[in-house]
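User: Could you go from structure to sequence for me? I need the amino acid at each position, not a summary. Structure tokens:
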């Protein structure tokens, strides 16, 4: 188990405490797994949700991943991040171009009534949520972990 959890955790740049909080597990469970301990199905499901991998990767009866497979998982994660950022930047550029056009149309044809700020604000809210999802992809897991702690 150590050769799976620890490299994936380090790839994300998380401490054991951060992974435990995001996954809704105890720090002791993360330590146990990284030292070769066994995992339950619930633990495997929690880790698979965090790392976006199949749960059987974290079960003890799963074949151990070699270095090339771990590198492949890391490459897939990097590709996913690059695609998310590309989509966000494309969204941002579209937002800027369209809203600049709306400002020009509004000020050119009807300068007495300023209305361009409505689509600017409304679309801006969506853009903010897109930015959060792109640059803080694990915010949902962190929120779920906090809510589980409160319960």
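Assistant: Here is the amino acid at each position, in order:
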């Amino acid at each position: 188990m150590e050769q799976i959890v620890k490299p994936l955790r380090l790839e994300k740049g998380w401490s054991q405490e951060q992974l435990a909080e995001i996954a809704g597990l105890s720090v002791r469970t993360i330590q146990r797994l990284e030292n070769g301990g066994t995992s339950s199905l619930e633990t495997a499901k929690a880790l698979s949700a965090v790392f976006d991998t199949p749960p059987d990767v974290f079960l003890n009866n799963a074949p151990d991943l070699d270095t090339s497979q771990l590198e492949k998982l890391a490459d897939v994660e990097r590709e996913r991040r690059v695609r998310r950022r590309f989509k966000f930047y494309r969204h941002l550029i579209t937002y800027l171009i369209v809203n600049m056009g709306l400002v020009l149309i509004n000020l050119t044809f009807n300068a007495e009534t300023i209305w361009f700020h409505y689509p600017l604000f409304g679309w801006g809210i969506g853009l903010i949520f897109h930015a959060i999802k792109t640059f803080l992809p694990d915010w949902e897991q962190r929120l779920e972990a906090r809510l589980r702690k409160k319960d």
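One structural detail worth keeping in mind: The mean pLDDT is 84.
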